[in-house]
Amino acid sequence: MPPNFWIWTFITHSFIELHIWHTIIDVIVVFLYSKMIEPLWGTKELLKFYFIVTIPNALFATCIYFLFYGLTFKEEYLFERPIYGLAAFIGAYSVVIKQIMPDTVLATTPFFKLKQDHVPLLIVLVSIGLWLARAVPIHFLIMLSFGIVISWTYLRFFQNHQNGTKGDMSATFSFASFFPSPIAPIISVLANTIFEIFVQLKLCKPFVKKYNAASSSSLTITIPGPEAADADRRRQKALKALNDRMKAKEPANEAWPDLDDLHQTSLLPQTDQTQHSSVIIDMTNSDESISGTNKDDLNQPFFDTEQQQSSS
Questions:
Q1: Helices (H), the chain
Q2: N or C: which end of the chain has fewer CB within 10 A?
C-alpha cells in the first residue's frame, strides 16, 4: 500500500510470522503437507498449489481492507493493517486432506462424530472465536477463509491429473459437503446456481461425463476426479466400512470361518466319523498307588453285586 507499495510482498508475505505459536503451527502444517501430499502430487504440483493459494489470497485480503476503509473511512485499514502468515495455507491444507480422506472419523463423542469433512468449517468457527477473544488479528480470519475457497476452487475445477481429467467432480468434494447435512441442500442450490452463472460466463467448463462404448461387453464411464491412487484409497475405505457394518450386524456367538481354516479342513483325510475309543490302564505298581486304601473296601461293591445276583 502507498507510500510503501512493495509488489514482491505478495510472494514473501507468507514467510513472515510475528508470534512464536503461529510459527510452530505453520511448521507443523508445512511438514505434514510435504509428507502426505508430495508423494501423490510431486514437488512441482506441490509448489504450484502453494503459490496459487497464497498469492491471490494476499490480493483478496487487500481488497477486503479497501472495502473496510470504504465502509468506515478509517485509515488504519490502509496503512496499519499488515497481511502476513500462512493462515491461507492452513485452510488450504484442510481442504486437501478432506479431498484425500473424505468421511474419515477423527473423533467420536456421545453427541456427534467429528469427520474430516467438518474440519474446514470448524477451523473457521474456531478462528472467529479467537478473533472475538482478540487472540488472532482480523487478517488471520480473512486469509483462512479465502484459503479454503481458493484451494477448493482450484482442486474442484482446474487441477490437471495424469489420467487427462481436470478437477474433482466427486460428490464427496462438493461445496455443500463442507457444511452440516441440515443446511447442505440449501448450500447446494446456491453453489449450483453460482456454478451455472460461471459456466454461462465461460469462467468454468460444464461437468462432462465421458462414455467409452467401444466394447460391447462393458461400458466405461470416466468422471473428472483425482488420480487412480486416490480412487483406490477411497474404494478400500468403502470396503472396510462395509465389512465393519456387516460384522456389527452378525450375532456375537456366530462367526464366519476363515478361508485358511476351510482350506486346511479340505486337505485333511476323510476318516470314519465313528471310531472306537480305548482306555489303557497301567496296573503296574498298583499296590503302591493304593497303599493307603483298604483293598477289601475297593472290592466290596463287586462282591455285593454278585451276592445280590445269586440271591435273586
A1: 9-12, 20-41, 43-72, 76-79, 87-100, 119-132, 138-153, 184-200, 228-249, 259-267, 286-289, 295-311
A2: C
In this predicted model, what pLDDT tens digit does every residue of 144-193 receive, in sequence order?
999 999 999 999 988 988 877 888 888 888 899 898 888 888 999 988 88
Going by their DSSP bridges, the two strands 113-115 and 105-108 should be labelled as: antiparallel
Closest CA to 92 of 20, 22, 156, 10: 156
- The sign of the torsion formed by the CA atoms of 29, 32, 35, 38 equals negative
177 phi/psi in degrees, rounded to 5: -70, -10
> Rounded distance, CA 167 to CA 81, Å?
35
Measured CA to CA, the distance from residue 223 to residue 210 in angstroms comes to 7
Q: How confident is the model at residue 64 (pLDDT cuts 50, 70, 90)?
A: very high
